[in-house]
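Why do we bother with holo predictions? Because pocket geometry can differ from the apo form. Keep that in mind while you read this record for calcium ion.
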Amino acid sequence: MAVFAALASPTLADPLPSWNDGATKTAIIDFVENVTDPASDKFLPEEDRIATFDNDGTLWAEQPLYFQGLFALDVLKKKAAADPSILSSDVLKAASSGDLKGVMAGGTAGLLELLNVSHSGMTVDQFQSDAHEWLTTTTHPTSGMHYVDMTYQPMLELLSYLRDEGFSTYIVSGGGIDFIRAISDKAYGIPPQQVVGTEGTTKYEEVDGKMVLMKHGGLTFYDDKEGKPVGIARHIGKRPIFVGGNSDGDFAMLEYATSGDGPAFGLIVHHTDADREFAYDREGHIGVLDRGLDEAAARGWHLVDMKNDWARIWSVNK
Amino acid sequence: MAVFAALASPTLADPLPSWNDGATKTAIIDFVENVTDPASDKFLPEEDRIATFDNDGTLWAEQPLYFQGLFALDVLKKKAAADPSILSSDVLKAASSGDLKGVMAGGTAGLLELLNVSHSGMTVDQFQSDAHEWLTTTTHPTSGMHYVDMTYQPMLELLSYLRDEGFSTYIVSGGGIDFIRAISDKAYGIPPQQVVGTEGTTKYEEVDGKMVLMKHGGLTFYDDKEGKPVGIARHIGKRPIFVGGNSDGDFAMLEYATSGDGPAFGLIVHHTDADREFAYDREGHIGVLDRGLDEAAARGWHLVDMKNDWARIWSVNK
Ligand SMILES: [Ca+2]
Ligand SMILES: [Ca+2]
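The structure, written out:
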């Protein structure tokens, strides 16, 4: 068995070529080698190698607004062109005119209102088809890239590395579960059943003589902050041993994973690269990382310094 | 490749030895061979081979009451012995005195009240540990078997057969997700992330200085009837192609699976064997199969006649 194991994992190849050598990369590889080595006292069988990752700001970019928010704006504009009466609030009016500041002034409640109006009244299948097309053909306002290409190459390598080492990789996101599933397989190699996210009201009902799954307004589950451990409990039913996030919305998930009895790895992507991506942390309208920065060291969580730890940012070279 | 495939699936061995030869067994094997044969126009890749099964009455017995209901009765009795004031309704009083008829007179609402009181106020881990112990050590009132042994051998063979042929097997049950997960791996080889069920309020919170997942009263998702396709959408995100159920609570799931564009197999376990198990269908307090019996033939669903189709019932010989 040892011979086959050695053949199967060529230790000479670098599993994380877009990560610069340094403490973070070393810690990741050390952890993975420990929990996958049957001779290690940290060894865990494959069924316990659960890895969960936040999506926005962790696996792909999230500025100037969550991609799902930008998608919602585009959908709303189209809907309002056909029926202006749907613009029944200041946030919706701001959204339809592309006024991002006006939308963000409405805070989370405003974003949810925007999502309610733009993400309901269609089947799950139709919604995902629309989202997939938008993500693969529309260009981002500042980078000019397609959204699907704004995933982080070092994180794609990390996902692949973990899967090669027997981990199951999950997304656990505050974003909408149907939206992420529209692209997760193509973007990350993560199938729909391994995506946990915020859930809207979905009903099985007859429409035009066919039984379909329809999206309605309103949330049934908000998968952020303390909701993330709950989402993990509901969908996975096991405590993850490897968790990646980027904001205080991931604090509870990191805490949950790293407060079990066994080995666990917590990773926080710190946005430090204004030239190649964006630089932000303690303040802002999105991806606030404050308590996480304060407590990471004491909790043994690993901060990824994007500027210095990542040799390359994007999965597609611009 | 063909050579290896032939070696890997020894066609001479019967994959369903506890099924008597007949139309149902033939239909199952024909379907599986078709969707797994790359030369067939019904071929589907492994990622599309999703199989979902109801639990109570489909994979294990459900009489004289759902096992989870019997567990709840035992828990309630213990709780009431310590604090009689929790018996605040007729249903709860009936339950604590073992009066099944009194509990069932309360209908679904009564059962939910019983579950609320007996399934809250502990961590998910503690609850699952209690449930696992109960299922593996307590004996069933009429069979005298341990509950964990009252699974159906032919269905265990079907689950294994499907997995051997590249299917992912899921439970999609009206029963509680935490309860089923306590035993699903041991009983069926189904890991927690492949169990979909009714969900109670769960919160991530601090108890005695530790962050835990606590079970509270109240349901957040009822995974029965039209809820089953919704539960499938939330947890799996794909339409199943093989579905097994036993009651009209599975009608929507069967309908959803078999109304897609591709091949799909619907199976209904019909309880026809009063000698070896139980006989019931159109009437009763549990597992009512009425519309399903009427429409199975027209919809192409396969009725399993337990008495004639199954050579053996239980996974453990009495
Ligand atoms: Ca994030
Ligand atoms: Ca049932």
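The pocket of calcium ion (ligand 1) is lined by residues A 54, 56-58, 246-247, 249, 287 (CB under 6 Å).
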